[in-house]
Amino acid sequence: QVQLVESGGGSVQAGGSLKLSCTASRYTYCMGWFRQAPGKSREGVATITADGHITNSDSVKGRFAISRDDAKNTLTLELNSLKLEDTATYYCAAESKTYINSCAHDNRGYFGYWGQGTQVTVSS
Q1: Per-residue pLDDT tens over the stretch 49-92
Q2: Other CB atoms within 10 A of residue 86 CB
Q3: Could you give the CA distance from residue 50 to residue 35 in angstroms, rounded to a whole number?
Q4: Adjacent-strand bridge partners of 55
Q5: In the predicted model, is pLDDT for residue 100 greater than 90?
Q6: Integer Cα distance of 124 and 63 in angstroms
């Protein structure tokens, strides 16, 4: 089992920035961020493997940056140039299996561990 705890959510004006963090109870090969807006399904934002392989949703490319620190079992998502449509609950996810091509933002079903989520609200 892996426990994931997110932090860093909050309210920000459009164009602003936030930094989300996720602390895992142990190392996992694949980690990522997903988000869910009210009335919508959960969607992938970005993922990263321990090898540094990163995938991003087209909607956040150039604005969000994912990184990880395996010495601290932490995952970070830097959100820049935030838009109203980025408003959502952001979830940290992880998986221990080491299939690099399966660790992707468009493969939500691959992830076996999930955090409780942290809210990001972008206002005009």
Answers
A1: 999 999 999 999 999 999 999 999 999 999 999 999 999 999 99
A2: 22
A3: 21
A4: 47
A5: no
A6: 18
Q: What is the mean pLDDT of the chain?
A: 96
pLDDT of 4 higher than 90: yes
- CB of 105 closer than 8 Å to CB of 42: no
Instruction: List, for residues 7-44, the tens digit of each pLDDT value.
Output: 999 999 999 999 999 999 999 999 999 999 999 999 99
CA distances from 10 to 2, 60, 110 (A): 25, 18, 28
How would you class 28 by CB atoms within 10 Å of its CB: exposed for 0-12, middle for 13-18, buried for 19 or more?
buried
* Cβ pair 80, 95 in contact under 8 A: no
Q: Helix or strand or coil: residue 22?
A: strand
Separation CA 15–CA 51 (nearest Å): 31
